[in-house]
Specification:
about 120 residues; alpha+beta; 4-stranded antiparallel β-sheet; 4 strands
């Protein structure tokens, strides 16, 4: 058996890949204690094992539930998130991909305003 220790730098590299998640989207990796296992893009570095993500989505993910839905994130922002458990042998973590609702709906809002402007002109 080969044992490999994977530290925060390894997980940060993976979790900070936010291609396609806009300016507010991110991936979060939390342990069963709800503490971050990789840094968040919305807080200063070194939040690993210090910042507790005590949100409904994180609680569900570490409880073994997966899903998609709107929820308030740890910053108090309304988000759309997909979440689920991440089981590695005997360890269960939770993984959450989320983006602010305001950013997701911004193109729709702009289009509605444009249509309204054309109708009133």
């Amino acid at each position: 058996m080969i044992l490999v220790e994977l530290g925060p730098a390894f997980f940060n590299k993976i979790m900070k890949n936010v291609v396609g998640l806009g300016r507010t989207g991110e991936m979060l990796l939390v342990g069963s204690d709800l503490l971050l296992r990789a840094d968040s893009r919305h807080v200063p570095d070194n939040s690993v094992m210090k910042l507790k993500i005590d949100t409904l989505n994180a609680q569900r993910a570490v409880s073994g539930v997966d899903g998609v839905g709107e929820a308030i994130d740890f910053r108090g922002q309304k988000t759309l998130a997909a979440y689920g458990p991440l089981d590695v042998r005997t360890i269960r973590w939770g993984i959450i991909a989320k983006q602010d609702i305001d950013e997701i709906t911004a193109p729709i809002q702009r289009e509605q305003q444009a249509i309204s402007s054309r109708r009133s002109a």
